Amino acid sequence: MRPRTRVLLLAAVFALLQLANVTGRDTPDTKNYLSYALSLGGADKREAAAAAIDYVCAGRATIAHRAQNVDVVRFHAPDPAPRVLEECREREWRQVETRLAAGQTGGHTVPFMPERFMRIFEARPGYPVFLVPFVTLLGVTWGVWTAGVVVACAGGVLAFLVLRTLSVPVPLALTGQALFYVLPCGTTALRPMTEGLQLALTLAVLWGCALVLTGRGTRAGTALVGAALLALFTVKHSQALFLGLCLAGAGAAIAVRGRRRGAPPERAVRALTGVGCAGAFGTVLLARVLHHPSMAESMQDLLTDHFARPDRERPWAEFFQLQGNFWTEWLRRRLWEPVFLACVAAGAWGARRRPVFGAFLVAAAGTGFLNQAGHPDINIWGDRLIVLAWLLPVLGVPQLLEPVLRERVALPEQQLRRNRRAEAR
Q1: Using an 8 Å Cβ cutoff, are 321 and 219 in contact?
Q2: Radius of gyration of the chain (CA)
Q3: Phi/psi class of residue 106: alpha, beta or left (left: φ > 0; alpha: ψ in -120 to 50)?
Q4: How far apart are CA 386 and CA 384, in angstroms?
Q5: pLDDT of 203-230, one tens digit each?
Q6: Ranges of the chain with pLDDT below 70
Q7: Nearest in space to 211 (alpha carbons), one of 162, 279, 245, 270
Q8: Contact, 305 vs 116, CB < 8 A?
């Protein structure tokens, strides 16, 4: 098969496997993004609320049904799905009706939570805009599922493109695509949240970096990095800021290392450093102009349980204390199940084969740790905030395996040469 056929076949197989879980992927924030998308599609507050609530509650009912089916004590009891569905609808509508009656009707999102909390989602139109054509054409359930599959498959294809741009052999580039699907990247990208688009756009940035560093398209690569950072701003502006800063930091580190060795920084590195600086500065400027929630507001949201309690008087002191507690517990859990640490270490070791690109790869993956540090909550739906760190094994492990593959390919050729020489004698 041609490489493109293999890429599409692998993506198609992955997409077909997702038919096993059409519903039940939502998180508590899904209804906020979905109501935003429905509002952009022309629905009023109550229509958007009804569709979002029905989708989320149907997912919870599905999960309750599956859980009881495998409960060794209650598997023969009546199906709990109807009861869970009704209770969920009643609870969600009670909250929405109360806030609508109180006059919380501004913005695009349905008031599922206090107004200060909903402002965070109002500043993230990128994912709702992405959802609009899917939910408009296919309805809410299949539209959300299709959108998740499309963005997850796109992430795998982008991983393949990055590796091929770096001249990694096709089998190993396909391995990188497969790793994106089977590691938590794929699972997280399928959830109706912003993480899928963040992963895809971050991979687009890395593809642009690869194009610039390999000389295969300096202008196109630079433009791709800038466009991806701009799109990332609409999805989650804090991620755009982190990625811009990390790209600039990686470029600066490469330049400092080169000067110590008596070599000036290459033009490609300077270009990527400049785009990273522009992205970080532009993010800060646009966020202020558009009055997006600040870091202080996000911190109060964290420490007050989504503004359910009074604002903290000393948020920074409490935040840093929580940071220490969080990372101590996080490391304890990772050492207990060291798969994540082992994969990240293997990816970092593989990235050393192309040190300049490896620096930008480590920088992009490092934004996952920055995202997690901004929300030191051990219970936020698994490790979705740190999921960008998994890009390091996705792109690094295939490079780590490259010498093994090249050796296995070279051995038969060497044996063939020996046979020919023996026949000639």
Answers
A1: no
A2: 24
A3: beta
A4: 6
A5: 999 999 999 999 888 899 999 999 999 9
A6: 262-265, 381-382, 407-425
A7: 162
A8: no
